[in-house]
Amino acid sequence: MKYQKVILFLLLILSTSLFINAQANPKIVASNNQAAKFTPAYSEILLRKTERESELEEFLLDYTEEFPKVKEIKFELGLINKEMEKILAVGATESGKLTLALGKLIVRKIELATDVWNLRRQYNDDHPEVKRAKRKVEVFEKAIKEIL
Question: H helices of 25-127, where?
């Protein structure tokens, strides 16, 4: 009985210490926020990432890193990773906002941003096609901000 009290006391001290350290260092809290990984939005983005990584592996079997489609997929994967980091930064109390609809909005925004990137490789920023594509991205960004 005495050992049980000692063990419980030590566990209490350890957990209190971890809690105080997490409060003092917000990065620990952010890195420990795993709730976002179990949301429909994260799953939707992860699905897109997996699809694109699979396509990239397929292209790399036949083409070099300089192949335009390889560059495009790598660009898109960079955008996907940034969005995944944003999702993971959402607190556990806000994870209810990470719906499937939000995930679909984010994936579509990434696709449109990739289109803008491709258009910018052909035209300057003043070209009507580039402007039109940028406006589409802005519409999706606005919708995402409205939710988050």
Answer: 26-32, 40-62, 68-89, 100-122
| Distance of alpha carbon 90 from the chain centroid | 10
Q: Measure the CA–CA gap between 2 and 5, rounded to whole angstroms.
A: 5
Global pTM reads 0.76
Question: pLDDT tens for residues 121-137?
Answer: 999 999 999 999 999 99
Q: Is 9 exposed, middle or buried (0-12, 13-18, 19+ CB in 10 A)?
A: exposed
Q: pLDDT grade, residue 35 (50/70/90)?
A: confident
Of how many residues is the chain composed? 148
Measured CA to CA, the distance from residue 101 to residue 20 in angstroms comes to: 36
- For residue 76, give the 3-state DSSP assignment: helix
Terminal Cα distance for the chain, rounded: 50
Q: Tally the C-alpha atoms within 13 A of residue 49's C-alpha that lie toward its C-beta.
A: 17
Cα–Cα distance, 100 to 104 (Å, whole number): 6
